[in-house]
User: Fold this.
Amino acid sequence: MDEVLFRQETTLHQTWNRIGCQPEIPSMGHRNTQKFFGALTLSPTMFSYHQTKVFNTDTYISFLDCIIEANLDHKLLIIHDNARYHKNDDVQDWLSENQDAIEGYHLPPYSPELNAIEYLWKWVRSTYTHNRYFTTVKELLSTIRGAFISIQKRPQQIYGYLQPFL
Assistant:
């Protein structure tokens, strides 16, 4: 489980050009970001996401509620990083109140390599958003949602992100 930001601003990543010819990619000159929570589940193998305007305790708890609703038939074990609001008293109280449905564990500090969904975020960026110019927020969101839908249709890809941790 994790959160991610996608920027409308162009991000350059590993381009090929003739020596001395810098690639030119337009930029809007502002940082419009789109925020998402995401989670991978092993059984059933799936990817869930939720767009939000801010990352905070309330929006995180709302996402956890959605995850529980989608997985009512079994208890969930969630692994999340050490964002301040993950450790917030309200989140801990919520986890205690919902302990029959969900149990939370924290990753060690500064260890994104231990979070399977980080690899999914990297794939989305490298495949869908790097080296692209998005004229509008609508175009950026359409691209991101297209990537997410593509992942949801491929449980074997999701399993591939989880498999090294099993």
